[in-house]
Amino acid sequence: MKIVAVTACPTGIAHTYMAAESLQKAAKELGVEIKVETEGSVGAENALTQEDIASADVVIIAAATQVPKDRFAGKPILEVPIQDAIKDGKAVIQRAMKLEKPAKLDYVEQVQKTKEEKSEARTGVYKHLMTGVSYMLPFVVAGGILIALSFAFGIHAADVEGSFAWALMKIGGGTAFALMVPILAGYISYSIADRPGLAPGMIGGMLATSLGAGFLGGIVAGFLAGYITQWLKTVIKLPKSLQGLMPVLVLPLLSTAAVGLLMIYVIGTPVASLMNALTNWLTGMSEANAVVLGLVLGLMMALDMGGPVNKAAYTFAVGLLGSQIYSPMAAVMAAGMTPPLALALATVLAKNKFTREEIEAGKVAWILGASFITEGAIPFAAADPLRVIPSIMAGSAVTGALSMAFGCKLMAPHGGVFVFFIPGVITNLPMYIVSILAGTIVSALLIVMLKPSARPVEVIAQ
Amino acid sequence: MSISEVLRPELMKFDMEATDKKQAIQELAQLMWNHGYVEDLQGLVDATMEREAEYSTGIGMGVGIPHAKSAVVKQPVVAFGKSSKGIEFDSFDGEPVYLVFLIAVPEKSDKEHLNILSTLSRALMHEEVRDALMRATTPEEVIRAFQSKED
Q: What is the pTM of this model?
């Protein structure tokens, strides 16, 4: 049995360490392995690594402050007031021991875990951007589908004020999509500078929208707001009695003013023209260029299956939805669905080339692929990267290129096959399905060709 | 660096007069102020009481460990006080306190000092250290009680 624990208190001078010692002492008495991270005034010491957490059966958090729990996702967590750990470490350890559960991960959990590990491993700029994107997504999903439903009444149905189609358009296009960039910018900034960063970020994002700088402007505004707020935190020193004013008055006011002025006078115009150039190029793109774009997006989606390259392609496509450009989104989702589908198909086509577990996993991979969870391919890719990754990249490139060539459009940023059935969400659905199938077949055949037989002994025995 | 650098002999009192928490903090803070470790006596007392208001540092087992991080403190330092009659300290276990450590830390302190303070806090969780402190009658004995746990 192994326990990992975090202790933390507001001043970080005494209780953090007393609690840690008490838990370690009790664990020793009870014969339990423990590692305790102390989050005191010198920062985190004896920090828990990914491996520590992965190998732990239970997590104990003994804190008088907020300790983020994201990195412990999937583990049983016991949270206790720090006093309890100091007073009776033994009782806390014993309570934690009862939480232990036999961890036999099935395939879906395994995929889930890889996803979590990936998002946990995100740091710096990439992490902030992904925080922004993840908060923005629900707005894009809700907005995009409502717009699509409005179009289902006819492409100009929304022009009639007061009609149902008009109402849907007003909710989706007029409101949800209008919030998209401010939310993106706001939560990028929030991720950098915590709560004081939210207001300047959102306001900067709103300015990006009104100045025509789109999601690119929003990303710039978000990072500016976050880093400016963070910087102000370190340079402004107020007497203690006034410190309460920092997060509500001083920081948001100054950073909002700074970000706003920068957006209006410095950044807004060049980014707006860049955004314009991009949208013009994308809307006026020749078919050949469209195919190349689809190809590149497809390669990116499959390269690291949910990693930074995949997310870069994805973010690009989602951001463009706000500028009414829907075809890259279609290519990206299709190309992201292909890898797990291809592996699922491969396990059916060549049972002798996969282990029994992989064949079982293949059944689940159908569902993960259909749900646009590209990570579903990771366990296969991890087991045999040199054969699997090039194969799925090839198939995804085919899918992306075909989707662009057929002029498919997608108005929702997620959902896989489940959005196929919502009227209006996908333009040219039959050809969209053809694109996905084509890439799936290409990848599956490549995998079957490249993979050696995995179970020669067993085959002979049979 | 060793524990004797923050736990100063001149900041130890073996016959505390205080009967409650506020008085105890006041008494040990006064000692720090007398020896020039703090710029503002009331400031230190206020910061410590403010910290106590969040939840008591009477950790039970007869030990109180009030502490403050404040700009009025010049260097990280610990004052130690012993009471024979016991001090009402609003402890986790409701029992009076016989050993009080007042820890004062400036807003910005170096890691080494903070590490010593964490060693001290950790040591207090061990019964043999607390027993040795209960028996101690001289500054040397107090420091020795910790030195057994220092590494």
A: 0.53
